[in-house]
Amino acid sequence: MKATASQAVPPYSNSQGSSSQPGLAKKLGTMDIVFTVLAYNAPLTVVTGFMPLIMIEGNGLGIPLSFLFSACLIMLFVFGFTAMSEHTPNPGAFYSYITSGLGKNLGLGSAFVAIMGYFCWLIALYCYAGIAFEGLAKSLIGNLSLPWWVWTFLVMALVSILGYLKITLSAAVLSVALLLEVITVITWQGAVVGEKGVTAASLDWLSTSAFFSGSVGIAILLAVSSFNGFEATAIFREEAKDPEKTIPRASFLAVGLLAVLFISTSIMYVIAYGSDNVLAATAANPSEAMIKSIEHFLGAPGLLTVNVLLCSSIFACLLALQNIASRYVYSLASDKVLPLSLAKVHPKHQSPYVASLLVSFGTLVVIIACVMMKVDPYVIYGGIGGTAGYALMLLVMLTAFAIISYFARNKHSYSIWRVYIAPGLAGVGLIVTSWLATTNLEVLTGNTTLAYSMIGLAVALLTTGIVYASYLRKNKPESYKRIGRQDV
């Protein structure tokens, strides 16, 4: 029997203590949450964009081992992460867990950093979506002169509508898009094996010399970033059918599936070009190296399919981000840190519609500002997207140590491995990864000034949260008690 030091506090209620509105719909099963997490990771985008970058900027032929190492690091973290999910039934994931383990002040600061991270991802991907959809439209229609931001606003409108509606509708859309992506990648892998043969499977990548070649630090940094998003398994706790079973299953399954897909695809990528030629081919055109390989093995129909699915992959990722960011705002409002009106749940769709509308409005304002200032969307995608990955990585590191701290102070029935050793090893690995991120952030953002400006913003938000929590403790103790959805 697990002892719980802090019980989950019910969401937004009226002054008489009775519920003033319906709760979020508890309709998500294991696979619904898994698909949301996988869609957030946008696997086709990782395959076509990140893999060539890891090879060129990172450790070359050692890319499969980089993904393997990163997957092991994240899987170690998930052992403790799922234990926290079972033991502290408060929604909010990193926010709630850091609060439980390291205190309300640092927990609130981490929540502000998390919102920054997810909001930055939304901005970055909306810009990338405009570019991708503009290119797809030109390839399908021909001479089409609509600028990228028109497509961005169209995509934003559809994402906002789905984010407003029932979460099960979003889950269904994400599931279809993701399955098509995975089927396409597997088909390409099969075509590579069919043409090259099993004997072409060189093991040059499976060596310590390959792993430590080039810049292994940057390779691991980018590979770890490819697994971002598994936090969503706990963020949707209030909407899971059976969270005690659903959250752990979805967490391990999501990370495991991503690991298999990324490792197998990176191996096939080396086989497709040949270990002697893959580095030169990738360096010659890293942005299109994987696309050209898909065209070679699957022909023009395969190329068109990938271009379409790349757009659907970006859309699915945006929809997942919209849902995650909305629920972060909803959790903070339920905790009375943000205005209670943001914790309202739609009476029909059972969605946090006000929080979702706020996220949509915020992204709209920023994109309009970028368009008016004529900022290059590629610059936004690289700079702001890199910042988002960096911010969320810091939260994973803090959560790893929060897990250890929490279970050191509370009775539990878990093994030493699950709540001390595994998260401890993950924490050490994440410290190293975070240091590599800090010293090489310009690789992610493409701009040193922007990189360190965004580091400053993350630190400022963390500090703001800590100071604000101190203010609440002194002036609004009831709100302070609820930080992290706790009552103690």
Task: Please tag this protein with its features.
488 residues, 19 helices, single chain, globular, mainly alpha, 75% helix, Amino acid/polyamine transporter I
What's the helix count? 19
Tell me the name of the CATH homologous superfamily: Amino acid/polyamine transporter I
- CATH fold-level assignment: Amino acid/polyamine transporter I
Assess the beta-strand content as a share of residues.
under 5%
What low-confidence regions span 5 or more consecutive residues with pLDDT below 50?
Answer: 1-21
Mean pLDDT: 79
Shape: globular
The CATH architecture category equals Up-down Bundle
Summarize the structure.
By secondary structure, the protein is mainly alpha-helical. It has 19 helices and no strands. 75% of the residues lie in helices and 0% in strands.
Task: Give an overview of the whole structure.
The protein has 488 residues and is mainly α. It has one domain: Amino acid/polyamine transporter I, CATH 1.20.1740. It has 19 helices and no strands. The two termini are 21 Å apart. The relative contact order is 0.20. The N terminus is likely disordered.
